[in-house]
Amino acid sequence: MNRLALLVGTALGLAACGDSATPEPPLQNDIMVRSEAQKRLMKLNDLDRAIALKRAISDQGLRCARLVSTGYVTRFRDMDMWTATCSDDRQWAVFIGGNDSVQVRLCKDNEAVGLPACEIQPGTEGGTGLENLAGNQAG
Questions:
Q1: 81 in Cβ contact with 95 (< 8 Å)
Q2: 139: pLDDT confidence band, cut at 50, 70 and 90?
Q3: Pick from 27, 90, 11, 16: which is nearest to 53 by CA?
Q4: What is the C-alpha to C-alpha distance for residues 26 and 69, in angstroms, rounded to an integer?
């Protein structure tokens, strides 16, 4: 009798292992950590933001003779993603981490490696800021 109870208990235990009920989704971490530098970049005017992004590109040993436009793209894996388009038609994705680490890659390569497309969020697009300087000097 004990043997039968043990077998039935084991069978029920094994049957429960194969339960096809949908598992609970993992908890999402809603905490977003941004460094002071990331926060400042969000608040910069077009000219200063263009300078910061161009420097990030240059510091990686990449080339951008002149920036034509910049903009915020999205938050990706705890990094802010920006884009910067250069006068030679190269568009760069600039990822800035909470520890101020920077990664830069060509936007055209993003999709192939599973990164977000370089589509600027409405309201964050900016030029180089130079057009404002030219207008101020002319007046």
A1: yes
A2: very low
A3: 90
A4: 38
The domain ranges of the chain are 36-130
- Give the position of tokens 């300078």: 51
Check: CB of residue 102 under 8 Å from CB of residue 94.
yes
pLDDT at position 7 over 70 = no
At 37, is the secondary structure helix, strand, or coil? helix
Considering only CA atoms, give the Rg of the chain: 25
Structure-token pair, residue 115: 């990164």
- Contact between residue 39 and residue 118 where contact means Cβ atoms under 8 Å apart: no
Spatial CA neighbour of 82 closest among 90, 64, 74: 74
What confidence tier does 138 reach under pLDDT thresholds 50, 70, 90?
A: very low
Calpha distance 79→96 (Å, rounded) = 5
What are 12-67's pLDDT values in tens digits? 455 555 555 566 655 555 666 778 888 888 888 989 999 999 999 999 999 999 99
N residues, the chain:
139
